[in-house]
Design brief:
Layout: E1 13-17, E2 22-23, E3 28-36, E4 43-44, E5 51-54, E6 61-72, E7 75-76, H1 85-89, E8 93-95, E9 97-98, E10 103-112, E11 119-128, E12 131-141, E13 146-156, E14 172-181, E15 194-197, E16 202-205, E17 218-221, E18 242-245, E19 263-264, E20 269-272, E21 290-299
Parallel strand pairs: 2-12
Antiparallel strand pairs: 1-3, 3-10, 4-9, 5-8, 5-11, 6-10, 7-9, 11-12, 13-14, 14-21, 15-20, 16-19, 16-21, 17-21, 18-20
Length: 300
């Protein structure tokens, strides 16, 4: 009787992560795929055992680029022309040579598109000597949920001043618009816009609402910050975070001019666009990330 000793094939290991557990459609993310040669032999094309990496396409995930770097030990990345998204998602990318103990890392940039739900699972594989190992990264797909609350307060009137003022002609009223994100998902960078029509029979104060140079809008973050910031440069600026309309909101290119009362009756609408990524709610229940934008009007 002849005894047979089974051949044990030792594979390189593979690890994949994007460093997060949640993702929102529109978010970009960066995956790292680390291939480690712990086989005790050199993996190379010359030895006919080179490591082949694949990272197939995933629905709704648009991959924009992939790069290769030797992060530990002695190894050789493929030529730049060979490290492409098409190759990675298709026939695969061959790593020409990896000494024992070396690590080659691929960095993959991608964006989640459309409106998927559930879990984004992304699996990469490495093959050597005809055997394959795999590693997956899974992110829960989450969405923002914005709540808009608007309130107003009379600041003063011509007869009572600031003592128990009434909503009468000539009185000043402050409107506060508070936006809260009660969802776990973030809001894409620079995409939060607050549109507000100036109430009928009122005119917008276009003078400073606070300190000199503050402009007609006050912006503040809640006890749990939204992560957004606000900039005012001037009433005529087209690059700061407040714009004005004099045609019912059809366009926002009007430059207000304050009259003797500090208001411009021609302003019909205001648009506020704070910058940054609106944070997601880390835990259920209050407080949630929020901000408040305030402006004043004068009753005609």
């Amino acid at each position: 009787m002849i005894g047979l000793t089974p051949q044990v094939v030792v594979l390189p290991t593979i690890a994949k992560t994007d460093g997060k557990t949640q993702i929102t459609p529109g978010d970009t993310t960066t995956y790292t795929i680390a291939i480690t040669n712990n086989t005790s032999v050199v993996l190379s094309t010359a030895n006919n055992n080179a490591a082949l990496i694949k990272d197939p396409a995933v629905t709704n995930l648009a991959v924009s680029s992939v790069t290769c770097a030797v992060t530990t030990g002695t190894a050789t990345c493929p030529s730049a022309g060979s490290v492409t998204v098409a190759a990675m998602q298709g026939a695969g990318i061959t790593i020409p040579s990896m000494a024992n103990g070396s690590v080659v890392t691929f960095t993959v940039n991608a964006q989640l598109n459309n409106n998927p739900s559930g879990t984004l699972t992304n699996t990469a594989t490495v093959t050597s000597n005809g055997q394959t190992a795999s590693a997956s990264d899974a992110d829960t797909i989450v969405y923002p949920s914005l709540v808009n609350v608007k309130s107003s307060q009379v600041l003063s009137d011509p007869y009572n001043g600031t003592t128990n003022p009434k909503r009468i002609p000539g009185s000043a009223v402050r409107y506060d618009v508070t936006i809260t994100n009660t969802g776990q998902g973030t809001v894409n960078s620079n995409t939060v816009f607050v549109f507000d029509a100036i109430p009928a029979q009122t005119s917008l104060y276009v003078t400073d609402i606070g300190a000199a140079g503050s402009g007609p809008v006050a912006f503040s973050n809640g006890s749990l910050t939204s992560g957004l910031s606000y900039t005012f440069t001037s009433l005529a600026s087209t690059t700061d975070d407040t714009d004005f309309s004099n045609n019912g909101g059809s366009t926002y290119s009007y430059t207000p001019v304050p009259n003797g009362n500090g208001v411009d009756p021609n302003v019909t609408n205001i648009r506020i666009n704070p910058k940054g990524t609106f944070a997601g709610d880390p835990v259920a229940g209050a407080p949630s990330p929020s901000f408040t934008a305030s402006f004043r009007v004068r009753i005609k």
